[in-house]
Amino acid sequence: MTIARTEHAAGTPYELDVRRQLNQARRDLAEAHAELAARRDQETALRTHLESLAADVRATGQAYTELHVAYVELLTHARATVAAAAHAEPAPAAYIAGHLEEIGLQPTPGAVPKQVVAEGLSIATQVSRAAS
User: Fold this and answer.
1) Given a cut of 60, is residue 4 above it in pLDDT?
2) How far apart are CA 29 and CA 32, in angstroms?
3) Is the pTM of this model over 0.85?
4) What are phi and psi of 40, to 5 degrees?
5) Does residue 1 belong to any structural domain of this protein?
6) What's the domain count of the chain?
7) Which one, 7, 19, 26, 127, has least CB within 10 Å?
8) What are the angstrom distances between the C-alpha of 123 and each of 12, 58, 118, 126?
């Protein structure tokens, strides 16, 4: 009678410990790869968001510049109107009226000055409240 010996892939305790460590290292590496992929996705999303914000800043800067130029032009024409009145020019309001007509903001014919001021201040108040 022959006894068959079966060999198990057991190995020495040291080899088993090395295998366990190697398997744990593989799991740790897989987790690190997954975390790295997630962080790369986050980086991509943040980069896209940052680029969007930068574009918004540029657009806002451009809009501010345009509004500032319009304000300076309007203020310049208003100051010219006051200077013309101080020098007793025949039609001092022509400076501001011409500018308002040019930009399409001249009051309607027959508009009451106090009503025009009240409407403008009302709009300014609404815009101010909306901004706060």
Assistant:
1) no
2) 5
3) no
4) -65, -40
5) no
6) 1
7) 7
8) 87, 27, 9, 5
Domain extent at residue 34: 14-131
Q: Is residue 42 part of a domain?
A: yes
How many Cβ atoms from other residues are within 10 Å of residue 106's Cβ?
14
The identity of residue 35, as a single letter, is E
User: Token pair of 35, please?
Assistant: 């975390």
Torsion of CA 118, 120, 121, 124, to 10 degrees: 160
Alpha carbon distances (Å) from 4 to 1, 7, 10, 12 = 10, 10, 17, 21
Is the per-residue pLDDT at 18 higher than 80? yes
> For residue range 58-68, what is the model confidence (pLDDT) as tens digits?
999 999 999 99
HSE of 124, CA atoms in CB hemisphere, 13 A: 6
| Residue appearing with tokens 């203020």 | 75
Kindly state whether residue 9 falls inside one of the protein's structural domains.
no
SS3 label, residue 27: helix
